[in-house]
Protein: DNA topoisomerase (ATP-hydrolyzing)
Amino acid sequence: MADPFKQLFENKPVEKTKKDPKRLSVERIYQKKTQLEHILLRPDSYIGSVEPVTQQMWVYDEHVGMNCRDITFVPGLYKIFDEILVNAADNKQRDSSMSCIKVNIDVENNTISVWNNGKGIPVVEHKVEKVYVPALIFGQLLTSSNYDDDQKKVTGGRNGYGAKLCNIFSTKFTVETACKESGKVFKQTWYDNMGRAGDVNLKPFKGEDYTCITFKPDLPKFKMTILDKDTVALMSRRAYDIAGSTKGVRVFLNGNRLPLEDFRSYVDMYLKDKVDELGTAT
Structure:
């Protein structure tokens, strides 16, 4: 007869509970990220999808003109370009003497620049943050000129991200702004998704104000290798949008002035070769 107490006194090693290899640790489940890391990990919350989509859009093709066709583009890339372009157009509201915007899209070097001759950003040190104002605006998150709710809003963004999103999704991002009032021109470059800031370059300045933003989109983050034809056509259309809707501002695209004299000439680009319900050409 088996001894019922034998197993109680046998010196056998206690079997350890096997760990589930698929089970995540508490540290992996609950993580704290910096704001910059969160933007890069969850870009759709800030700039929209970073996946290519195909849909019918109005675009401007060099040899066709304005036309509506199926294109494949990445909304997130379109968004960061638009942030910079709209910033330039908004400057007209701050400075009525602004008269020119220049957009350059360099496909070969994957470089985009937007220049305007409106009032420059003050090239002075922020007394609270102890950095130059242009560096604060373009290189630090949640900084904005639109936080004063007592001021009437006539321009675009107000959430403190804006152009910094373009910096974050670029491998290289350069700000150059000249301010006659400050008597200086400021230039600084950020690298690696705003992860590294170059030195501030200051020079005396006596000319007319301007601001130029130049950036290299981080194309792999948008599942892209080049600025393709569809993307350039969509960005070109946005340049025409600005030319048609910003009164008193000449817009240049890759060195060529866009031939729009007023809003009517902009609308006509969409109506060419169209007929009304009676078959009459419009």
